[in-house]
Amino acid sequence: MRLLVRLGGILVLCAVLAGCGLGFPIPLPTNIVPAPSAPRSSASPSEEPDPLDATDALDVSSHEVNAFTSPSGQIICMVSVDGARCDLPTGFSGAVPSTEDECPGSTLPPSALVVTDDSGWICADDVVAAPEPNLPSTRWWQHTGFPTVTQAGRTRVTLPVGKKLIAGDFLCLSRPGDITCGNIAVGAGFTVSREGVELF
Question: Per the domain annotation, does 42 fall within a domain?
Fold first, then answer.
């Protein structure tokens, strides 16, 4: 049986007003439906490393929210000490669950992935704002030397492949073609790419 969990005060990044580049905060939806619990297996030395391993992660806990895109600019995410969120990428071709299954009573389709104490879909009427340089949400990036990408005519800061951000217990990792975010304390998280979503 799926349980609704309350998001613990995550703030969505400033939503950029059309054409003016100014932003305003929008609260994140308050309910997510967690993924069914599945045990995490221990990786053997020949398997892929644990995506929630915090080794060499850049600690961004001192910033309220930390926004970034994948190197392609297609996947936009944010991480804070309260959780992590990624919106479905441009050109997403994976399966999306029904609103009835994921967000009973909502008229909005599932459109983003969130992790707090568990991971799940949210049915949001907002999006994470494009993480442009010099915004409060991209202060973490300003002295990293990480590249930018231009997407839809806007310059966005990226989290390069192999790099990780950590804020409290929440970590996001950029890998070729996808972003993985999770709660390292409980092992819950998600991976999102243009081809699909995996919840764990």
Answer: no
Our count of domains for the chain comes to 1
Closest CA to 179 of 96, 39, 78, 42: 78
pLDDT at 48 over 80: no
Residue 188 clears pLDDT 90, i.e. is over it = yes
d(CA 3, CA 23): 33
Contact present, 168 and 182 (Cβ < 8 Å): no
Which helix (H) or strand (E) segment holds residue 100: the answer is: helix 99-102
Separation of alpha carbons 188 and 1, rounded Å = 17
Structure-token pair, residue 75: 């996947």
Q: According to the model, what pLDDT value does residue 152 have?
A: 82
Range of the structural domain that residue 155 is part of: 5-31+50-199
The pTM of this model reads: 0.77
Position 182 in a domain: yes
Cα torsion 128, 16, 57, 117: sign: negative
Q: How many CB atoms lie within 10 A of CB 41?
A: 8
Distance CA 101, CA 9 (A): 24
Residue 37 lies in a domain: no
